[in-house]
Amino acid sequence: MRSWMALVGFVLLAFVAGFVGSRFLPGDWYAALAKPSFNPPNSVFGPVWSVLYLLMGIAAWRAWRPRGIDAATGLWFGQLVLNAAWSWLFFGRHLLGWALVDIVALLVLIAATTVAFFRRDRAAGWLMVPYLAWVGFATVLNASLWHLNPGA
């Protein structure tokens, strides 16, 4: 029973990061930005992030089971903070450059978390790979938006 409650807890924590980020929506400011040709439609982001938060929570739970809270899960908690901060920087404050700094740090932490999870539980590592790929794409998108919209 304890393990299932932990699973629910990890998934909820992942979705809390998503909820915090969702308080800062794109809005008119984002609509007015020049965008690269590979910018996905806004309707893609909600479903993609919902799946990613679920996978992140399950991955953390699988990595937690053998050893409890340790460096691997600490990395996971750290990346959650940077994940939530990105939306505030980008959509809330319109600081594209600082959001880029945040997302690069986030990408590094996700990569470190993924490696740590692979060492703990292969499935946990694989569950992080879509998140790593998506944030890699989001990093390129953030950099492109910053480049296309100087002073935005």
CATH homologous superfamily classification? TspO/MBR protein
Q: Tell me the strand percentage band.
A: under 5%
- The residue ranges in which pLDDT falls below 50 over 5 or more consecutive positions are none
What is the β-strand count?
0
Can you give a write-up of this model?
The protein has helices at 2-22, 27-32, 42-67, 71-92, 96-120, 122-148. By secondary structure, the chain is mainly alpha-helical. The protein has a single domain (2-148), classed as Ferritin (Up-down Bundle), CATH 1.20.1260.100. Helix 1 runs antiparallel to helix 3 (42-67).
Give a quick set of tags describing it:
152 residues; mainly alpha; Ferritin; elongated
SSE blueprint:
Elements lengths: L1 H21 L4 H6 L9 H26 L3 H22 L3 H25 L1 H27 L4
What's a concise summary of this model?
The protein is built from six helices and no strands. It is mostly helical.
